[in-house]
Write a structure and sequence with these properties.
The chain is α+β, with helices and mostly antiparallel strands. The protein folds into two domains: 60 residues, no CATH class; 162 residues, Rod shape-determining protein MreC, domain 1 (Thrombin, subunit H, Beta Barrel). 38% of the residues lie in helices and 31% in strands. The chain has five helices and twelve strands. A six-stranded antiparallel beta barrel has the order 1-2-5-4-3-12. The protein has a six-stranded antiparallel β-barrel with strand order 6-7-8-11-10-9. Helix 2 crosses helix 3. It is elongated and about 120 Å long.
Length: 275
């Protein structure tokens, strides 16, 4: 009590000044509309600033709980994505044989490794013998051919890419059905070459190239690309540059193609050649 009295005596003039100031402000705020509005604005600003700082502090201390909730939500979303992906793949497999002639079946797969800047390029798919994949199956997308399966393990398969100088595929001009040999020359990953098209065959830049019926691996009329340039100097055949429809740097979802009558056809053709 004595301490309080000493404090009041020591600061009596300051306390009196503060009391008079508060009284003056009260009089102004209650008797003058303009002053009252100004004081209320200042009070609101101070209150808003204080509340924002308090909310920031509360948010900081609640970060761990917020992170826990977000992690749980992410986990649930990942589970939903995985479930939808599995259902989509199952639906693709059921609908695969309706994409083209029922002679072929289509199995969805994803590219997990790929190269385009070598002379001998290969891909790895996330489907293998456990999923019914075998060597010499074709691999395509909705906008072009990709390659041929050459190696299989239980859960993965290796594909020789169309961008491999060792691979040749039978292809043809869509408008005239004249066929030739399609291969990559090892240069631009966006272009391949079509050869063995006779010089008398009329062709134009922009003509579409598709797979031919002479392959037992790929269905007929799978799109490949369009003619970007051609020449026939010093030869009886055109040398045709084909710009691919599919960008091989963007390969992800593909289809593995199964010809249900491949073995029957090849067995018959082997007997014919032997005879």
């Amino acid at each position: 009590m004595n301490s309080l009295l000493r404090f009041i005596v020591k600061y009596q003039f300051l306390l009196l000044f503060l009391a008079l100031e508060i009284f003056s402000l009260w009089l102004l705020s209650n008797h003058t509309y303009y002053q009252k509005s100004k004081i209320e604005n200042v009070a609101r600003s101070v209150s808003g600033y204080a509340n924002s700082k308090i909310n920031s502090a509360q948010s900081y201390f609640n970060l761990s709980e917020t992170n826990r909730v977000l992690s749980q939500e992410n986990l649930e979303l990942r589970k939903q994505v995985a479930t939808l992906s599995a259902k989509t793949e199952a639906l693709y497999e059921m609908m695969g044989d309706t994409i083209t002639d029922s002679l072929y079946l289509f199995k969805p797969a994803k590219v997990v490794n790929n190269s385009v800047n070598k002379q001998y390029n290969y891909l790895t798919l996330n489907k293998g013998s456990n999923h019914g994949v075998e060597t010499e199956m074709g691999v395509v997308t909705s906008s072009g051919i990709v390659g041929i399966v050459i190696g299989v393990s239980p859960n993965y398969s290796t594909v020789i890419s169309l961008l491999n100088i060792d691979l040749k595929i039978s292809a043809k001009l869509k408008k005239s059905n004249h066929f030739g040999s399609l291969f990559w020359d090892g240069n631009s990953y966006q272009h391949v070459t079509l050869s063995d098209i006779s010089q008398h065959v009329p062709i134009s830049i922009g003509d579409t190239i598709v797979t031919s019926e002479f392959s037992s691996i790929f269905p007929e009329n799978i799109p490949v690309g369009v003619i970007s340039s051609f020449s026939s100097k010093g030869s009886n055949f055109h040398t045709i540059k084909v710009k691919l429809f599919k960008d091989f740097k963007q390969l992800y979802n593909v289809w593995i193609v199964t010809n249900k009558q491949k073995q029957e056809r090849e067995r018959l053709e082997t007997l014919k050649d032997a005879g």
